[in-house]
């Protein structure tokens, strides 16, 4: 099978090869060559060469692998007459705030890793600026520099004089008028005639949060710039128009709460045309930790959009496939919520990867705010008791997002969300430690879209959409790609698959879907990458086959070749797959519609198509049976398997080694699973509510048919189970805690029946991501 490169996507995104010089070190391969700025280097790089720093007018510092810390303000302050500076093809992520280049007129920052442009305001005489191929900068950043640099004429080679004047004057007047109106309508009466410093501080903070959320102007693709300007205008309004300037320094506090300000919504301005997303968690009374705070993530932030597909349960996705014993009913849409209208990126071949802002808000709200929001007909959240048991872990509801809606529909409570996986970190050394093997970024899929979400801020960082697709599964891998001139760099690649049987390969940092693999003729239920072979991808399909693919490594032009290495024949539809941790290149487990199976996947064996090697029996009342649907499957550690079947109220933990070793030699042998314990779970017979594990912390998670999350702390059991003669736990193990679904209300009514399709934690168990049947992604944070 040959991978199909999608050249048309290049019109949407700009691909940047990280500029770097490199050296070939014998025995070690390619290594980056680092440079340090010195006086001698500056003199040598001057055009023409100079003997004194103060005489340099043109300076070329390109292709030196410079990072932000290499720009020494003390050294640059001596470049008093510098007018042209070339910093292209480096590794800068921002500018120091005090470079002191008072005469700088031309600046080239192409091919870097810039995340923010506001520090450029220190160059007020700048006339020409280029920063192309900085993948984290967006249209919002273009507008920021147009406002900040009054003398700027050329931006990335284009004359922006007229547009910049509009931004600085017309746009600013409109926003100032809206900010003033917002104060008059919602906050003027809250300020007493005689007020204390504390009252001023409180109302200032509330107003800044509210005005950034509710004042909307211009296209939604510029919402980040608008919020940035609104905050600036609001601060000036408070200080100069009303004299509410505090003597105490509140800047540090505002910066610390920057994410909370962006995510907290106070009463909405009724006249605004663009409604805001309002799925809102409320503060739970028993805890005092603050939700929603965190460092601002500036990489590729974007406006939230809500597109998804209305679909039945996965068993009925394809009409000619077996239906479940008890299919779930379709959920009816609840009454109106108020989604934020996001901007769409350029569309090509029915696919998009727009940037967006999340549909989330901080969980901290006052009673007055809740009351006012109910009056405005928006979604509110009422705190509920978490569990009757004594809890050994405390978790706060952080964000409730509605970012997979179909066609931005505010009434879409039908879209099913299926899969989520945390992004791995790129530091190969850190990845060896499971506690630090992922970031706080999670990929989620459901309906026609895949979203990347920052769990701390609730920001939807990126979104990928295929109008004719229905995504069921996502998986990450890290590929070491050759960039150019034989230089190599690690990049995270996201694979997404679903109804069409096609695997999409997405280079996330470049916002680029670089190809697809036509893996199956029927829908793909789940995908996973090998932990030892970065290019090996398993796809499990409704055609009753599991295929192993080598997706190849794309070259600098994104040309790649995918090949099929193996086909595993299943007796029924595979729903979940897991590679055995102690031998991931030899054995694969799969939970299927008719049981749990194991295959030998070692590639040195001759046959390319293989039947299963073992089928596992599990208790069923008073006997053992192989005939049951296994819709949950994961490893708790190197040996303990956690599986959930269609038997109500039970999740089994069993030993892989002790079960499989009993098989002996031969093929397609029936083996009794060596049960270690049973977990108490919901008595529902509802299918496809899958489970997950957090091996580093010894936790198992599983959602239920009521929106709750059952959490089991098994760290105290694993040592005993690991012994060769470890005994089975006699009693069912109760959950350490049950996180109950908060009472979300839309216009005073609850959304329809909420089923938890999937729940996943990061390796350190800091965040818990809950995917539901009603198009809501819930993010909890461990307190």
From TrEMBL:
Q: WD repeats: which residues? A: 517-551
UniProt entry tagged with the keyword Repeat: yes
Compartments in which it is found: Chromosome, Centromere, Kinetochore; Chromosome, Telomere; Cytoplasm, Cytoskeleton, Microtubule organizing center, Centrosome; Nucleus
Query: What region holds the Leucine-rich repeat and WD repeat-containing protein 1 WD domain?
Result: 394-782
Q: Which SUPFAM superfamilies match?
A: L domain-like, WD40 repeat-like
Q: GO terms for CC? A: centrosome; chromosome, telomeric region; kinetochore; nuclear origin of replication recognition complex
Disordered: where is this region? Answer: 248-393
Q: For bias kind Acidic residues, which ranges apply?
A: 248-264
For this UniProt record, the keywords arranged alphabetically read as follows: Centromere, Chromatin regulator, Chromosome, Cytoplasm, Cytoskeleton, DNA replication, Kinetochore, Leucine-rich repeat, Nucleus, Repeat, Telomere, WD repeat
Q: Does the keyword Transmembrane helix apply?
A: no
Which family does the similarity line name?
Answer: Belongs to the LRWD1 family.
| Protein name, as recorded | Leucine-rich repeat and WD repeat-containing protein 1
Q: Which organism is it from?
A: Lepidothrix coronata
Its taxonomic path starts at: Eukaryota, Metazoa, Chordata, Craniata, Vertebrata
Q: Which gene encodes it?
A: LRWD1
